[in-house]
Amino acid sequence: GTFSLSNLGGIGGTGFTPIVNWPEVAILGVSRSQMKPVWDPEKEAFQPRLIMPYGLTYDHRLIDGAEAARFCRYLAQLLEDPLGLALE
Questions:
Q1: What pLDDT, on a 0 to 100 scale, did the predictor assign at position 87?
Q2: Which residue among the candidates 36, 49, 60, 70 is catalytic per the annotation?
Q3: Which of 18, 29, 50, 63 has its CA 20 to 30 A from that of 7?
């Protein structure tokens, strides 16, 4: 199957649920990154952090939900450490 990437961040989109276009099996929707306060338990304070919402829509007849969740977690790890991504 095929996979699409849809980016609404460039036009200011802050979140959306992409729709799979047949015959594709999945689509990843990426929204605009924003600085948001995130609680840091080590510093016991909120710290600014760049947050980029994304959503994965997939055909569950072809992709197992647990595998899709692992993919999303792996993608988040790559995006949280772009230098590590460049070194892979």
A1: 80
A2: 60
A3: 63
Taken in order 8, 55, 82, 3, the sign of the CA dihedral is negative
- pTM reported for the whole predicted model: 0.81
Within 10 angstroms of residue 29's Cβ, the number of other Cβ atoms is: 21
Using a CB cutoff of 8 Å and minimum separation of 24, what contacts does 7-15 make? 8/32, 9/33, 9/52, 14/53, 15/53, 15/55
30 is catalytic: no
SS3 content of the chain, % helix, strand, coil (to 5): 30, 35, 40
The amino acid that residue 53 corresponds to is: P
Q: How far apart are CA 45 and CA 37, in angstroms?
A: 9
Q: Over range 19-26, report the average pLDDT.
A: 93
